[in-house]
Automatic annotation (TrEMBL):
This is Sulfate ABC transporter substrate-binding protein. Coiled coil: none annotated. GO terms for molecular function: molecular carrier activity. It is found in: Periplasm. Residues 1-32 form the signal peptide. GO terms for cellular component: periplasmic space. Transmembrane segments: none annotated. The lineage of its organism: Bacteria, Pseudomonadati, Pseudomonadota, Betaproteobacteria, Burkholderiales. The keyword Transmembrane does not apply.
Length: 341
């Protein structure tokens, strides 16, 4: 065999070995990180963690001397949680509603008391649901009842797969109850709103694309941080409208016990989530228009976050488990509403 053939065969063997190593998660180079974590997160948190991850990796290197790499997976919050339940080996989950982490706790992947493992119900940030409208607000949209008006096209992601779709549904329903209305009146409002939804995207980022790039709809209802980012990028084309009241949308986090114990990375995963509560982490959170927990950081960014009357899922719906069972489980209120029952 010629030298060229020998060299080619060696190179081919190296390529095959590298491909196999990558497929099973083995390091393929001497420069590979000492530790790798996978953060499975919700759809509109991409940009946040693109900034959080390198900041944490640098801090981890300074304090431990070890190299760590954080990998990301994004999609609709509930869809992501189901992927973890089905075997996606997340070291941590960073979701936009407690319900998705509760489901993982029920499957034995996350501690039952996960919400007490970190401060503030294990939610280092929170947001709320607001409206993004076309420049000048041609439909005159001001509050939840305006979304139910005939001829108004409302872009909301699917509450069955996306956390912000679920928060939007509950915010609209709760707005009626907060004003002294009945469940029947709340159901009527939500029914009219979803009749105005032309497309049910599976995740929040897809819904944003539908509204901003595909030019579908008169109003996008999504997280405050998402509309602020859109407004920052396409400022001259859109306006932000705050309803009279909205829902408190916490962004809870949890260590996936089954995975971190299997891989021996519990300390690193815990350190990663604790970083979100650090002043540096809170600063990055605020810069991405999520409301921080740190009083000092919140004060610094006070001008960014408009005061708004917020109500919680616990106050109005008896908690996420009750809300899920009544409204979003198969055969629940949403299925009846969207199915025309």
């Amino acid at each position: 065999m010629s030298h060229k053939k020998i060299a080619f065969s060696a190179a081919r063997r190296l390529l095959l070995a590298s491909t196999f190593a990558a497929a099973v998660g083995l390091p393929v180079a001497a420069s590979a990180a000492d530790v790798t974590l996978l953060n499975v997160s919700y759809d509109v948190a991409r940009e946040l963690y693109q900034d959080i991850n390198p900041a944490f990796e640098a801090q981890f290197k300074r304090t431990t001397g070890k190299t760590i790499q954080i990998k990301q997976s994004h999609g609709g919050s509930s869809k992501q949680a189901r992927s973890v339940a089905d075997g996606l080996e997340a070291s941590v989950v960073t979701m936009n509603q407690a319900n998705d982490i509760d489901m993982l706790a029920d499957r034995g992947l996350v501690a039952k008391d996960w919400a007490r493992k970190f401060p503030n119900n294990a939610a280092p940030a929170y947001s709320t649901m607001v409206y993004l409208v076309r420049k000048g607000n041609p439909k005159g949209i001001k509050d939840w009842t305006d979304l139910a008006k005939p001829g108004t096209k409302v872009v909301i992601p699917n509450p069955k797969t996306a956390g912000n779709g679920r928060y939007t549904y509950l915010a609209a329903w709760g707005s009626v109850l907060q004003n002294g209305g009945t469940d029947a009146q709340a159901r009527e409002l939500v029914t009219k709103i979803f009749r105005n939804v032309p497309i049910l995207d599976t995740g929040g980022r897809a819904a944003t694309t539908t509204f901003t790039q595909r030019q579908i709809g008169d109003v996008l209802v999504t997280f405050e941080n998402e509309v602020q980012l859109v407004r920052k990028e396409f400022g001259d084309n859109f306006d932000i409208v705050y309803p009279a009241s909205s829902i408190l949308a916490e962004s809870p986090v949890a260590v996936v016990d089954k995975v971190v114990d299997k891989r021996g990375v519990r300390n690193e995963a815990t350190a990663y989530l604790n970083f979100l509560y650090s002043e540096q982490g809170q600063e990055i959170i605020a810069k991405h228009y999520l409301r921080p927990r740190s009083a000092a950081v919140a004060k610094k960014y006070a001008a960014t976050f408009r005061p708004i009357k917020l109500f919680t899922v616990d106050e109005v719906f008896g908690g996420w488990r009750a809300a899920q069972k009544r409204h979003f489980d198969d055969g629940g209120e949403f299925d009846k509403i969207y199915g025309g029952q």
